[in-house]
Design goal:
Layout (H helix, E strand, L loop, with lengths): L22 H20 L3 H9 L6 H31 L7 H4 L7 E4 L5 E5 L3 E2 L9 H11 L11 H14 L9 H10 L6 H17 L2 H11 L6 E2 L1 H9 L8 H8 L14 H17 L5 H9 L16 H15 L9 E4 L3 H21 L7 E2 L6 H13 L8 E9 L2 E5 L5 E5 L7 H4 L13 E7 L5 E4 L5 E7 L6 E5 L24 H9 L8 E4 L23 E4 H6 L3 H11 L1 H12 L21 H12 L10 E5 L5 E4 L15 H17 L14 E6 L5 E8 L2 E8 L12 H4 L1 H11 L14 E4 L2 E4 L11 E2 L9 E2 L21 H12 L2
Parallel strand pairs: 1-5, 3-4, 14-23
Antiparallel strand pairs: 1-2, 5-16, 6-10, 7-8, 7-10, 8-9, 10-11, 12-13, 12-20, 14-15, 16-17, 18-19, 19-20, 21-22, 23-24
Helix pairs in contact: 5-11, 5-12, 7-8, 7-9, 10-11, 11-12, 12-13, 15-25, 18-20, 18-21, 18-23
Length: 848
């Protein structure tokens, strides 16, 4: 964009800008001096008097004043003509092209939206949202015209009435205090000129204004102005300002809000409604009065707007829904493709996220994490300060301290001003206070005792966290150290519906959904079971839940896998998964082979081969997965055996709204590869339904649905808690753990850690969605109420049992005893393992 720089002011004096009205008197004195000299040389008698009469000195004072003004006007006309001539001849050719206006392409930031068009992210140096003239509310246009240029539609680009008024004011105040710039002149300055107040720049403004008025209509000029003007907080244009200050689309603002925004162009920092609400209110009231005087609004509208309580957005509430991790993922993907143009090209990304689902996921993760915190007790205040006795000094000390402890969503920081075992008073930023007692102090009771340790004690000056309960009462709480995450997607095509990568993005930007490679624990067992189905096992296969011992080999350590409860002896494979029996899973994996299982789970479900080692602990989830990867894998069960790819971006549009790229996802039943037999997926669906309704995942029953499937997961020493589950239309995976893995507690399992998050989320996400069962595919038969592959029934390729042979505790057997259904199945009695038999087992596994 061409820029016209201000001429060097050092080459002109102030007399060039401000004419001296007493110069003519100086000339008169010089002329008089000449006449005096002439009088002395040529006489000063009658001849001198005739000279005076001859040049008009005998006229009346009024006549002399009129002549003086006429001469001054003539001089002004000459000077004006010279200026106009100079402007046209010298300055005119230097005027820039108006291409920047006619083909308006401002720096527009990257914007990220949900599928239902809720803004969740914006990236760029300039916050700007282009809005067409017809989409700007009438009250916003009138508010701007009232304060900036109420004669905008009457003048031709330069308002000489305004210039005259400003000139009188400038002379009255002894300097250039008013610029008299029209909106057209402001457009010229904003696009092409500096903002310094000089007469040279003003002439350029006027010339450009006329040029702009010839090239564009009044509506086009006003549209440019309302999209380009800087309004503070990196916001350019009124649409962006409405979002920044009020969290609204421009079309939704009230008259009172429009008047407050209209006051920003004069001095954005001075009239910022967030930083200077009182000054902004005064400016707003003045603008409303101007609108009333100009008959832009009625008295009733004026009174209503004056009385309206303006609510601005506070820090951390810039967007309508918390999706910071999603927005950052999109930013990274866009930057990988468009580099620096990402932040200026005006790209609009529409994601697959559903705003209601996202909000539910965010609240579910935060609730689950805070519930865990309450179970594990108070750790003490975040810090302590000395409170001055003087009230003003105390308030200042509290403000300074809380700057280092910003609010975290609903967890508000405060400084304790008084504390007793039954009551605490705390002060917030701004001076408001809260008194907490009863249930509100129960969580921190240990810190209020007289014998509390130094680290735990709550006293005046302690920095604490408060949150409101469901009834709106304050409670003392604390910032969590544990992290949580949740991701959900549509299993048919992998469209991500909700993604929460951690407790708080501003506190920890590490995205646990996509970046955290963690052991999945027992949530991985279904994939081993799925592999076993294709090896002849089925839900009715009897597997011995009995102790196993693997001796040290090759310098390693001996391994004796254990369950959290006592071995139960022989049980069906369905029961083994329902109760999440470790020894059952190990026997299954040993029977089908670790190499086969590795190939199966990586090819069918998309797990990384290098993170899925082919050894027996894989049956217990000893590999590594991310929550996103696990949700994609469970989608194969949910969609009937099709492997899809999770995706987040639905489409990308340019600044003009033209779509430049659109997702073409793999879709089950269409273009997605079918990696798993439908009958395998159906039987696994049945097994996982048993887990979700009768087993370790029975917490899902609170949703009162009969179409849910899922599996809990808890890793060794409870370092990770999982729940992965689905309904036919939605898959979701919840996780909880520490960034630096450590135990979550000896009594903590996936059912207590992650399942409540999943249930809280799915309760909202499945609202209004009818129950739906998976259709039974071909190739499945039922015997005694249990499911079998039709070509692998009892006595015909079906593996009836594993681990019942004392001499070979990992071997399978095709023979059956009695019925095989849930009601008729008869398991043999639990074998007693003698010392000799135990030694034989050890010897067997010590062989290469």
């Amino acid at each position: 964009m061409p820029i016209i720089k201000r001429p060097d002011s050092s080459k002109s004096s102030r007399y060039d800008r401000e004419p001296r009205w007493n110069d003519s008197r100086n000339d008169s004195r010089n002329d008089s001096g000449g006449r005096d000299g002439g009088g002395r040389n040529g006489g000063n008698g009658r001849g001198g008097r005739n000279d005076r009469n001859g040049d008009g000195r005998g006229r009346s004072p009024f006549a002399r004043i009129a002549l003086w003004f006429a001469g001054l006007a003539a001089i002004g006309v000459v000077i004006g003509a010279l200026i106009v001539g100079y402007a046209l001849v010298v300055m005119g050719p230097n005027l820039p092209s108006l291409n920047a206006l006619i083909d308006y392409r401002p720096k527009v930031p990257l914007r990220v939206y949900t599928a239902d068009h809720v803004l969740i992210g914006e990236f760029g140096e300039e916050r700007r949202s282009l809005v067409r003239f017809q989409d700007i509310p009438d009250q916003m246009k009138k508010a701007v015209l009232a304060i900036e240029d109420y004669r905008f539609y009457d003048h031709g680009g330069v308002d000489f009435v305004g210039i005259l008024r400003a000139g009188v004011t400038d002379l009255t105040h002894g300097g250039a205090s008013q610029g008299a710039s029209t909106i057209t002149m402001q457009v010229a300055r904003n696009f092409f000129l500096s903002s310094e107040k000089t007469y040279t720049r003003k002439i350029y403004e006027m010339l450009l204004a006329y040029k702009i008025e010839r090239a564009l209509t009044k509506d086009q000029i006003l549209e440019l102005y309302m999209n380009q003007i800087y309004l503070g907080e990196r916001a350019y244009g009124f649409s962006a300002a409405a979002r920044v200050y009020f969290g609204k689309d421009l079309k939704d603002i009230t008259l009172a809000e429009a008047a407050m925004l209209a006051g920003l162009p004069k001095a954005p920092s001075a009239y910022n409604p967030v930083v200077n609400p009182k000054r902004a209110k005064v400016r707003q009231q003045y603008i409303l009065k101007r609108m009333l005087d100009l008959n832009f609004i009625t008295r009733e509208q004026y009174d209503q707007a004056i009385a309206e309580d303006i609510r601005t957005k506070s820090a951390g509430t810039e967007y309508g829904v918390h999706a910071e991790y999603v927005a950052e993922m999109v930013r990274q993907m866009m930057y990988a493709q468009y580099k620096e143009e990402t932040y200026t090209r005006g790209l609009t990304v529409t994601t697959t996220i559903d705003s209601a689902d996202q909000d539910a996921a965010y609240k579910a993760v935060r609730k689950g994490v805070m519930d865990y915190e309450r179970r594990h007790g108070y750790r003490g205040p975040e810090g302590n300060i000395n409170l001055p006795s003087n009230a003003d000094d105390r308030a200042e000390a509290i403000e300074d301290a809380l700057v280092e402890h910003p609010d975290n969503g609903e967890l508000v920081a405060a400084v304790v001003t008084s504390a007793s075992p039954k009551q605490v008073t705390a002060q917030f930023v701004g001076g408001d206070t809260a008194t907490i007692s009863g249930e509100g102090v129960r969580f921190v009771a240990a810190g209020l005792r007289s014998n509390a340790t130094k680290a735990l004690a709550i006293k005046p000056g302690s920095i604490v966290r408060l949150a409101k309960d469901d009834k709106g009462n304050w409670q003392l709480t604390q910032l969590p150290q544990v992290e949580g995450a949740l991701v959900s997607m549509t299993p048919q095509d992998g469209a991500i519906r909700a993604l929460v990568g951690g407790f708080d993005f501003n506190k920890n930007k590490f995205n646990h959904v996509t970046q955290a490679w963690r052991q999945p624990g027992s949530s991985f067992k279904p994939f081993i079971y799925s592999a076993a189905l294709d090896k002849g096992l089925g839900p009715a296969t009897i597997i011995n839940d009995a102790p196993l011992y693997f001796p040290a080999a090759g310098g390693g350590d001996a391994w004796e896998p254990k369950d959290d409860d006592q071995p139960d002896g022989p049980m069906s494979m369905r029961t083994g998964l329902q109760k999440s029996k470790n020894l059952v899973s190990i026997r299954i994996l040993s029977y089908i082979g670790t190499g086969y299982a590795q190939d199966f789970v990586t090819q069918k479900f998309g797990f990384d081969k290098d993170k899925t080692p082919p050894y027996l602990p894989l049956a217990l989830g000893a590999g590594l997965v991310t929550p996103l990867q696990l949700s994609g894998a469970y989608s194969v069960f949910a969609n009937g055996g099709y492997r899809i790819n999770p995706y987040l971006i639905a489409d990308v549009a340019d600044a003009r709204g033209s779509v430049i790229s659109r997702a073409n996802p793999l879709t089950a039943g269409s273009n997605a590869p079918q990696t798993l037999e439908p009958r395998n997926a159906y039987i696994m669906n049945s097994l996982l339904h048993t887990v979700a309704t009768q087993g370790t995942g029975s917490g899902t029953n609170v949703l009162k649905r009969n179409d849910l499937q899922g599996k809990t997961g808890t890793t060794n020493d409870a370092k990770d808690g999982w729940f992965a589950g689905y309904q036919k239309q939605l898959v979701a995976v919840a996780w909880m753990g520490y960034d630096q893995p450590k135990t979550l507690g000896s009594r903590e399992f996936g059912a207590q850690l992650a399942l409540p998050i999943w249930v809280e989320y799915m309760g909202r996400a499945l609202r209004g969605i009818p129950q739906e069962q998976m259709a039974k595919p071909d190739g499945i038969t039922t015997v005694d109420g249990e499911l079998f592959y039709a070509d692998r029934t009892p006595g015909a390729g079906f593996v009836a049992s594993i681990g019942l042979d004392n001499t070979n505790p990992m071997a399978g057997d095709a023979t059956t005893m009695g019925g095989v259904g849930p009601a008729g199945m008869q398991a043999p009695p639990t074998p007693q393992v003698t010392t000799d038999e135990r030694k034989q087992i050890m010897d067997m596994f010590s062989r290469p």
